[in-house]
Amino acid sequence: MASPQQPSRGYSVGNGISPSNPETSIATPDRSPIISSAQVLNGPPRFPPPKVQHDHLSPSVKTPTLMSPANGVSTGSPIPHLSTPPGPPVFVSPLRPAAVPFRTSPSSPQPVALSSESSLPTSSPPNFSNGSPLLDPQLPQPQATEEKSSIEESPCVLFSATLVLKQKKLSNAASLGFGALISPGREILQGPQIIQRVAHRCQNCGAYANLYCKILLGSGQWQCVICMSLNGSDREYVAPSKEDLRNLPELSSPIVDYVQPGNKRSGFIPVSDSRMSAPVVLVIDEGLDEPHLQHLQSSLHAFVDSLPPTSRIGIITYGRVVSVYDFSEESFASADVLPGDKSPNPESLKGLIYGTGVYLSQMHASNEAAHRIFSSLRPFKLDIAEASRERCLGAAVEIALAIIQGPSAEMSRGVVKWLGGNTRIIVCAGGPNTYGPGSVPHSFGHPNYAHLESTAFKWMEHLGREAQRHNTVVDILCAGTCPVRVPVLQPLAKSSGGVLVLHDDFGEAFGVNLQRAASRASGSHGLLEIRCSDDILVTQVIGPGEEAEHEDISEFKSDTSLSIQMSSVEESQCFALSMENKGDIKSDSVYFQFVIQFSNVYQADVSRVITIRLATTDSVSAYLDSVHDEVATILIAKRTLLRAENSAYAIDMRASVDERIKDVALRFGAQVPKSKLRRFPKELSLLPELLFHLRRGPLLGSIVGHEDERSVLRNLFLNASFELSLRMVAPRCLMHREGGTFAELPAYDLAMQSDTAVVLDHGTDIFIWLGAELAVDDGRSAAALAACRTLAEELTESRFPAPRILAFKEGSSQARYFVSRLIPAHKDPPYEQEARFPQLQTLTMEQRIKLKSSFLHFDDPSFCEWIRSLKVVPPEPS
Fold it and tell me: Where is the Sec23/Sec24 beta-sandwich domain (predicted)?
């Protein structure tokens, strides 16, 4: 019998807004309904995606279970480098092996056994109970066949544990929890996993046929693993033996792509770099001082040189007016000027769009014109403070959208083509939007500032949604020292599916991000469907999307799936799912199916189906041993950051981390004999230290002083991939050795040894620290610095946003950025230091005395001091 219809999940859009179905909503103190960390986006499609450089895990950590196709994951073409300064270096050789080796690729995990359930004999007709066909449970089932997978590449799904605890009370403990990280945009190889036909779906719940389904060989009927209903296959699954069914991709692989070829765009060109042919419109701030403008011009010149010849580009500048540059003029820079004090009216847009000017053009025809336009930009000359200069950013983006929507012409050997969507607008901003629609007053002291800011917020959000509706992503790259009023600009990027990134200047990091923003691919019309066994309930989703209207998309009578309308389908994005047991689980396994529907860059409709089976257990020890500390930490961190909306809430969330540690120790740890202390579970040895990094790092700690920067980091983290999220929580520490090799060490201040150089990767920032003794030797320090910088750039080769890279010497004022991100382990007793930082044992007594004397006293507790203050004994280091 088909299982009864599950109750509504009770999700809602926005932060803490009441559920769409309040009668069936789940009220929990530590969870809120589905969170829209970005608004809906029908962005530029993708397939295949760009190559992504993945961060490396420490050799000592447990590797997450990677759910990916049997033959691995493919990657696309690398991101092109800047061709003129400032830009990233081009590497010609890989790093040499480390003296104490660290992994240069993610460690190979042990895959979950993926097996195809047995097919029932053709002589066995289905049984019926109350009119519903059931497969005979008495029939012998052959042994499951373990299928080894090459899963060293990026995962599509990461679960916080490879086992599901049967006991509801312990499994639903809010302090640890259970969940998964879903990366909808991960790529799989084109091969047997690509299916160009209509999928077989359960007529009751809508789930897809998969490798875990039981099949009647004689009739080709298959049983759904989600609702247990029996379905037909139009005799496609009729086969003499179950081995013959393994030739069908959906019955042999846990992840398949159903692709329906199509072409929705006139002028579509199916070539390898067609992803790059989608237009990019640059919207550039004119209110820059000369030093900033010079850096910006260098980055812009390098940017256009990095674009493929088929790329389309448009250039708009804004100040008090909006200038739309015309590529039809070959000898000089020419622009049509529109007022910026109000939204463009239809008449002015009609004259622009239907005129003779060419505002979007392919690079092979407009490269020289683009360089000429950038060289013609002039610095702001009036004696007005940066924050007070008039900038009509809102009107400029409106005009950019109008040009994109067309009709607009491009020049291609004298032939006019009409352009479709799939566009990216990149705003290069040096200050706030202070003029025209969506603007705020120059001064915070304006008597009506709060109301005007609220109005601007709503206007920008509406503009972002309008961009999303037209398959356009708006990225805002800010730079300089002038505050840009992030609360006003963030809604524009967020609701369109783009990002807002802050930079110190318009130099190297800005130039790299400009390239990567334009070259990263994304799918449009994205929809994520989540189906689970009846025992499992999804309680919260955090990521770049919002709940879809279920009644508008479901064609199945008992479809209880959770549907998320995705803002975009990009490789760098991730959804965090929190799950609970509805009751004590009786079965030996539970099933999860994730379906990602989107239109790719070739305008084909893709339905990516990922089906996973996890075993259940009664053993708490076995469950804890299956927990992946890093994934569990990121799930906890995303739930925590969601509630840390400002610095005041961040302080409260630091306290919640403390309570979480105590609760895990109480529920899963052991009592220390003859003491009131609890011992933290040894199976979760990495979890408390990772949470300590979260507590004191830039996401929750006091390292980041400005609220704008904290807001940008928070929004980036809530949507970020697992790899970037992990680095943003816990920095990776690499010590340079003689000969250019590196050793990976714990991120403790004990790594600050004066005769060495250290690289610290903290996600959005990379720090290179040169010890005082090393710095005095010019030759050695130059070689070490070069090696460290090469390592830093290789580690983040395709990371978006590209991190800023800062290098400094021991004792300098900038060194505080580095020191504040390391755990102050120098305060611990020697035996504790050696246990958690074994590299100390290689130092001589003289070196250890010198190291100890180099530290300054301050009040921040070490990890051991912090966890013991919670009446918890720290686990032994792994």
Answer: 524-617
